[in-house]
Design brief:
heterodimer; A: alpha/beta; six-stranded mixed beta sheet; 37% helix; B: 8 helices; flat
Chain lengths: 251, 220
């Protein structure tokens, strides 16, 4: 490996993957530096979510390599546990544990995976819920929360693992439009605090304002990438131009 | 009516001895079938091919042989291989093993009904298979399997009467013995039926209580 010059936190090198005979990733090469916010945009089926899921081993990949701080991501090796606790994930459909309260959801990982003392984990869990604006929902069950509140609990759950980076898989796509803002604000505040984030999103406003870089994927390849403003305001590739036109002016 | 009451007070102590054995057989085989059923179900959902196949073969074999035949096999055939069990032991093991097949399918249905996103969420915070099952999947599956589990409990209680065929002096056998020596069939079998009913009703109550207890926080 030739990582003499620079060392990115997440390195994706020539990653390929097929579902059966259908190739979803056709050689993806990208990296995310510490403290960077990178947005993945592109049409559905372009492989955005699959890349994200490969990074923390929810999905295996066929060729190439993904490394986190030099450690290779391999889904079936015991090392995957350490990688998953370092790469927290926020899902489109929240995936909160419905039988546990907001606080229990947040402290589940710290107590049962990282073996932190419960009292300490609970105290931190309350702080994190307060940080995402849910200090008064500590004892609420997911079924009693709105979509936006559930997604903020999920973000607190991710933060509780004290991860090196957080992977967001379309975190606002399942939300009612009026609830999108509260989640994006929390994400923006994380970015402002220097959290490393890789975000699959259709929120171009968020990408423009918060992302350092934007990658545009189509058909399993990165078609265009660069600083957020550049890619979103003055895309150079026709496919990017076409995609953005359709997203920004749907009618 | 008066004769009925007089006979009833006379037969009841004997029948209650039978109730004791009915309860021992039912509770013993319930515990055994629950544990074994969970083992088969976890083998099936383990994702390890050969483990799943073994469990599948066991479950289908047990489901395909009448419980009565399984009891006879354990009580009358196993001694030929040097495994001699008392009638009570044979009844508990026989019913427990036979019912583990039905328990297993019930548990598997509950486990597989849980949204796969739950597994992914558990994995994403670093949980392995065991922890995911224990902390995330099983607690949610319990809620789903409880109603059919209550069904199985009631069926087991009643099927414990099959132990009478291998000489366990449980309620049905006691009743049969009294009836055949007194010819008071109506009194005896009415009492036996009422006693079974009296044992089943609290079980049903227990299941609804458990459903309420495990149902908390899952309003959608």
């Amino acid at each position: 490996m030739s990582q003499v010059e620079r060392h990115s936190m997440i390195e994706i090198a020539g990653v390929t993957k097929s579902f059966g005979a259908f190739p979803v990733l056709k050689g993806i090469t990208a990296n995310v530096d510490k403290g960077e916010v990178v947005c993945l945009i592109g049409p559905s089926g372009s492989g955005k979510s699959t890349i994200l899921r490969c990074i923390n081993g929810l999905e295996s990949y066929d060729g190439g390599a993904i490394t986190i701080d030099g450690a290779r991501v391999e889904r079936d090796k015991p090392s995957i546990i350490g990688i998953r606790t370092a790469m927290a994930m926020v899902f489109q459909r929240f995936n909160l544990f419905p039988h546990r309260t907001a606080l229990e959801n947040v402290v589940e990982g710290p107590i049962f995976v990282k073996k932190e003392p419960p009292a300490q984990a609970m105290a931190r869990g309350r702080e994190l819920l307060a940080r995402v604006g849910l200090a008064d929902k500590v004892d609420a069950y997911p079924g009693q929360l709105s979509g936006g509140q559930m997604q903020r609990v999920a973000i607190a759950r991710a933060l509780a693992m004290q991860p090196k980076a957080i992977l967001f898989d379309e975190p606002t796509s399942a939300l009612d439009p009026e609830l999108v803002g509260e989640v994006l604000q929390v994400m923006k505040s994380l970015a402002d605090d220097g959290m490393t984030m890789l975000v699959v999103t259709h929120e171009m406003g968020f990408a423009r304002e918060v992302a350092d870089r934007v990658l545009f994927l189509d058909g399993g390849v990165i078609v265009e990438q660069g600083p957020a403003r550049e890619v979103l305001s003055a895309p150079s590739h026709p496919r990017t131009q076409d995609f953005l036109r359709r997203v920004l002016r749907p009618i | 009516m008066q004769t009925f009451l007089r006979d009833a007070t006379q037969f009841l102590p004997l029948l209650l001895q039978g109730v004791k054995f009915t309860l021992i057989v039912a509770l013993g085989s319930l515990a055994l079938s629950t544990v074994l059923g969970l083992v088969w179900a976890l083998m099936r959902v383990s994702g390890i091919g050969w483990l799943g196949t073994i469990a599948k073969v066991i479950v289908n074999t047990l489901r395909g042989i009448p419980i009565l035949v399984q009891l006879f096999y354990i009580y009358f055939v196993l001694p030929e291989f040097g495994i001699a069990l008392t009638a009570l032991q044979a009844a508990i093991i026989g019913l427990g093993v036979a019912y583990s097949a039905y328990q297993s399918e019930n548990f598997r249905a509950g486990i597989e009904a849980i949204d796969h996103g739950q597994v992914e969420a558990a994995q994403s915070i670093g949980m392995g298979w065991g922890l995911t099952m224990r902390r995330v999947i099983l607690p949610q599956a319990i809620r789903l399997v409880l109603p059919p589990y209550g069904n199985i409990m009631v069926m087991m209680l009643k099927d414990s009467s099959q132990a009478s065929t291998i000489t366990v002096a449980e309620l049905t056998l006691q009743g049969t013995l009294i009836a055949s020596s007194t010819f008071k069939n109506m009194t005896v079998y009415s009492l036996v039926a009422l006693l079974y009913l009296a044992m089943c009703l609290p079980l049903m109550g227990l299941v609804s209580w458990l459903e309420r207890r495990f149902g908390k926080g899952t309003r959608r």
